Amino acid sequence: MTALSDAGGHVLVVNAGSSSVKLAVLDPVSGRRALTGLAERVGTQDASVRIDRDGERSTSTPDDVSHAGVIEALLALMTGDERSSITAVGHRVVHGGPTYSSSVVVDDVVRADLEALTPLAPLHLPGNLAGIDATTAALPDLPQVAVFDTAFHRTMPAYAAQYAVPRSWRDDLDVRRYGFHGTSHRYVSGAAAELLGRPPGELGLVTLHLGNGCSAAAVRGGRSVDTTMGFTPLEGLVMGSRSGDIDPGVIPYVAERLGVDAAEVVRRLNTESGLLGVSGTSNDMRTLLEAAAAGDEDAALAVELFCYRAAKHVAALSVALGRLDAVVFTGGIGENSAPVRAAVLARLSVLGVHLDAEANHANGATTGGRISTPGGPVALVVPTDEELLIARDTADLA
Ligand code: ADP
């Protein structure tokens, strides 16, 4: 137990994006949420904020629609007791660059480092930094901790972390495979070891985070040794609106044919591709499964392509492990969609993993648990909780 939890303190977890801020006030030991909050359309005149606690919602429309303004407005919706229960602030930060391999207390040096990393994540880091600045201004006496999406993957060996490109691109431009979703992969790999009743140091796992964004990681002995996302979150699996792996030769070809620049093609690979691009209708797995069941062939193809690519990457990552003990499903799709898990696992019988159809329908987001038959590697559902891991790291460092 941490000093913080002994004192009964709560951690404020902040996930500040470019146009939204999500927050939670929670106990870092039990994970119990005292409240959750959301600011939407940040930076626009329609910005609104809300706090949810015990089934009751309070809302307001701030005059100051900046990150600082909406965070002030969210804090103003909390009671005095709720505010004073907060003893530290943990921030989800998308990128820690080549150096940050674990969570860190934000001081002036860290703040400057993050600013310098902005070219590596220009869409996300400015929002993260605005969140850090806003909570530092509003709660100046509390420690602020940065928890990086990339940090868990800093243990990847060079042969997995590098692209086969000119060496100067790595040395001078920091072009390398960083990986993302590290907080989720780290959380579920630890929880999977607990479920299996085995020490993490003994296990070889492939963790599959399937949400709007999707990635898989090879976790050997509790450390990430490879992952599917790379320099940006575009690489790897098929996602809601991202293509995943693609031949870079497509980019200049499409740019020329459509009369747009390369950056615009990459934007479309991020926002108009994936499940949305293949189906032509939706980036939402639940919608596509319903459409496929009703006979929509494009929706069915999108789902099949998604599941095939996921299985292909699990098989590829298993070579990084030496031994495959378990495949772990998490994220909105991984936790909730029995049909997607069944389709991925059907293709993994080649690795000796066999679906237990009954358990697959019984074990989902609320329960988690084993969904494979005995013998061979295990398949598990493990609900992720990135906020809890951020709160725990924050409590440990504060
Ligand atoms: P994010 O990556 O934005 O956090 P989530 O992890 O919540 O997103 O995942 C969102 C995805 O989960 C959507 O594609 C949604 O359709 C899917 N999903 C949620 N519930 C179900 C369900 N019962 N069946 C199939 N897909 C589901």
From TrEMBL:
<keyword id="KW-0963">Cytoplasm</keyword>
<keyword id="KW-0418">Kinase</keyword>
<comment type="similarity">
    <text>Belongs to the acetokinase family.</text>
</comment>
<feature type="binding site">
    <location>
        <begin position="209"/>
        <end position="213"/>
    </location>
    <ligand>
        <name>ATP</name>
    </ligand>
</feature>
<feature type="binding site">
    <location>
        <begin position="284"/>
        <end position="286"/>
    </location>
    <ligand>
        <name>ATP</name>
    </ligand>
</feature>
<feature type="binding site">
    <location>
        <position position="15"/>
    </location>
    <ligand>
        <name>Mg(2+)</name>
    </ligand>
</feature>
<protein>
    <recommendedName>
        <fullName>Acetate kinase</fullName>
        <ecNumber>2.7.2.1</ecNumber>
    </recommendedName>
</protein>
<keyword id="KW-0460">Magnesium</keyword>
<dbReference type="InterPro" id="IPR023865">
    <property type="entry name" value="Aliphatic_acid_kinase_CS"/>
</dbReference>
<feature type="binding site">
    <location>
        <position position="22"/>
    </location>
    <ligand>
        <name>ATP</name>
    </ligand>
</feature>
<dbReference type="InterPro" id="IPR000890">
    <property type="entry name" value="Aliphatic_acid_kin_short-chain"/>
</dbReference>
<comment type="subunit">
    <text>Homodimer.</text>
</comment>
<feature type="binding site">
    <location>
        <begin position="332"/>
        <end position="336"/>
    </location>
    <ligand>
        <name>ATP</name>
    </ligand>
</feature>
<feature type="binding site">
    <location>
        <position position="92"/>
    </location>
    <ligand>
        <name>substrate</name>
    </ligand>
</feature>
<dbReference type="InterPro" id="IPR043129">
    <property type="entry name" value="ATPase_NBD"/>
</dbReference>
<comment type="function">
    <text>Catalyzes the formation of acetyl phosphate from acetate and ATP. Can also catalyze the reverse reaction.</text>
</comment>
<dbReference type="InterPro" id="IPR004372">
    <property type="entry name" value="Ac/propionate_kinase"/>
</dbReference>
<keyword id="KW-0479">Metal-binding</keyword>
<feature type="binding site">
    <location>
        <position position="386"/>
    </location>
    <ligand>
        <name>Mg(2+)</name>
    </ligand>
</feature>
<dbReference type="Pfam" id="PF00871">
    <property type="entry name" value="Acetate_kinase"/>
</dbReference>
<feature type="site" description="Transition state stabilizer">
    <location>
        <position position="242"/>
    </location>
</feature>
<comment type="pathway">
    <text>Metabolic intermediate biosynthesis; acetyl-CoA biosynthesis; acetyl-CoA from acetate: step 1/2.</text>
</comment>
<feature type="active site" description="Proton donor/acceptor">
    <location>
        <position position="149"/>
    </location>
</feature>
<keyword id="KW-0547">Nucleotide-binding</keyword>
<keyword id="KW-0067">ATP-binding</keyword>
<dbReference type="GO" id="GO:0016301">
    <property type="term" value="F:kinase activity"/>
</dbReference>
<keyword id="KW-0808">Transferase</keyword>
<feature type="site" description="Transition state stabilizer">
    <location>
        <position position="181"/>
    </location>
</feature>
